[in-house]
Amino acid sequence: MAHSIILGIESSCDETAAAVVTGDRRVLAHRLAGQEAAHRPYGGVVPEIAARAHVEALEPLIVGALADAGLRLGQVDAVAATAGPGLIGGVMVGLVMGKALAHAASKPLVAVNHLEGHALSPRLSDPDLQFPYLLLLVSGGHCQLLLVEGVGRYKRLATTIDDAAGEAFDKTAKSLGLGFPGGPAVERAAALGDPKAVPLPRPLKGSAEPHFSFAGLKSAVVRAVGRYSPEDLAASFQAAVVDCLIDRTRRALHRADGATALVVAGGVAANGAVRGAMQALAAEHGLRFVAPPLWLCTDNAAMIGWAGAERFAAGLTDPLDVAARPRWPLDPSAEAVRGAGVKA
Ligand code: KG4
Ligand code: ZN
After folding, report:
1. What angle do CA 240, 246, 251 make, to 5 degrees?
2. What is the CATH number of domain 130-291?
3. pLDDT grade, residue 339 (50/70/90)?
4. Measured in angstroms, how far is the CA atom of residue 117 from the centroid of ligand 1?
5. Residue with CA closest to ligand 1 atom 3
6. Calpha distance 123→128 (Å, rounded)
7. Considering the entire predicted model, what is its pTM?
8. 56, 95, 142, 213: least CB-packed within 10 angstroms?
9. What is the average per-residue pLDDT within 69-92?
10. What number does the ligand 1 atom closest to the CA of 167 have?
């Protein structure tokens, strides 16, 4: 059978994106429109502004991606759109567009969980990555350790009890006056600073359950602002985050029976210090280390198209009345954990 061709659509946060991906891992096209400039004056993503920006950007991106791939809509085998979790206004824009295109072209719709897009993205870049694998999923909205057992099969081993790792990067950037988006800015400043200069806490380090917490670290940075250089603060903050991520992942490895690889994905996986430390941890345990290329770590539509291709191959398509889900855990059986503002 010929390999499937999937149109992917992403609009759950502040990137609007369209891509054309094949079942044999070819990215025929991927286009992306960021909204940084629109949100920068507010120092964070404003949902209403994001939704309007998605409306304006999406159609030309899709038309452009199909043109880049040299295809007409009728030549794709399915349309995959993010159906959650995320900002509901943005998710609706992309999902409704996906439904309309699927209906117009009489092609199946695949409603993709954005987190599944991140979770399967390493299999797009690495054809040898087999299930099961231990995944550290670190993004702006989520910080989880998942045993990825197969398409649609995730066992959540840990989550954050307060902030996500990317959120901590963004808030630290804000308090250091480094601007928005914060992750890359903190990484650049950290390269010029001393990671041992500022004593900062490592919340939950050493605790029995492999959960995460970053709120206390973020507050400690706020208290230290003005007493140290922004570069030293950024470097010390980044070192503390990496320490926590590695300690928690090491703990989870004991519960990741049969894992063939240690994998990191999501926006924070673009961070060089995070990637380096995860690679060392994998080596320590004799495991393969897999991380997608940087462009595939931060939000994009190729990962949605790829998750769509994996689901399509498994016969998992969705009816056109499928609902958008602002909250949508990958592992519905995972228990809620105690803590302020727990993320799904
Ligand atoms: O996966 P993503 O693009 O969107 C979500 O699904 O949340 O992740 C965005 C997050 C932001 O918090 C951003 O600051 C962070 O990823 N990020 C980074 C880096 N690049 C992006 N954090 C640390 N270092 C980076 N180089
Ligand atoms: Zn994301």
Report:
1. 130
2. 3.30.420.40
3. low
4. 15
5. 298
6. 8
7. 0.96
8. 56
9. 98
10. 12
